[in-house]
Amino acid sequence: MISFELGVEDLADTRFAVSPLSETVLSLRVLHDPGLSAVHLPWRRSVLGALGGLDTGLLMSLVAVRLTLPDFLTPRPTVFDPSFEDELALARRTPPALVRRDLLAAHARAVLRSRWAPRRTVTTRPWPPCATGSALSCGGTGRSPSSRCGRRCGSWSRRT
């Protein structure tokens, strides 16, 4: 069993929402790895059949070998039930530097595969330590390193 210990600030920062963009992006994992969830196999077969001969290499390269995804593709919903178009517009407004950082983080220590580039291993620089001195990713909020530190120090934190 997994349990989470939340402080007052963590709980205040918790939101429940439906995210059509997150569901779409997370479905890439199932397309990438058929063994991930047997319940989705019929859906996977139908989607792959519908895709036919379309070149999905660039799209599928978003999913890292470890099945991680860049965070900019799953922005935190601003309302309970946002439209797909609104969330896509939010993702499109992501600054290029943040897109690059998230792609490097998702593919950290993984081999990038692309038909346009030779195979190479990407090594990323670690995020600067949290100003609060916390060794937990994002001050214990459970968010990924691409999220702001939960302790409101304004810095980025990482696991040490």
Protein described:
This protein is mainly α and 160 residues long. The protein folds into two domains: 15-125, no CATH class; 126-160, no CATH class. The protein contains six helices and two strands, in the order ααααααββ. The chain has helices spanning 8-12, 20-32, 41-51, 57-60, 84-92, 96-106, and strands at residues 111-112, 120-121. The protein has a two-stranded antiparallel ribbon with strand order 1-2. A hairpin with a 7-residue loop joins strand 1 (111-112) and strand 2 (120-121). The longest helix is centred in the first third of the chain and has 13 residues, at 20-32. It is globular. The two termini are 25 Å apart.
Brief overview, please?
The protein has helices at residues 8-12, 20-32, 41-51, 57-60, 84-92, 96-106; strands at residues 111-112, 120-121. It is an all-alpha fold and 160 residues long.
Number of separate structural domains: 2
Helicity, as a percent range: 25-40%
> Runs with pLDDT <50, length 5+?
120-160
For the record, give the distance between the C-alpha atoms at the N and C termini, rounded to a whole number: 25 Å
**Mean pLDDT over all positions:** 75
Beta-strand content bin: under 5%
Rg, please? Answer: 17 Å
List SSEs in N-to-C order: HHHHHHEE
State the shape. Answer: globular
Biggest sheet: strand arrangement: 1-2
Q: Number of helix segments?
A: 6
**Class derived from helix and strand content:** mainly alpha
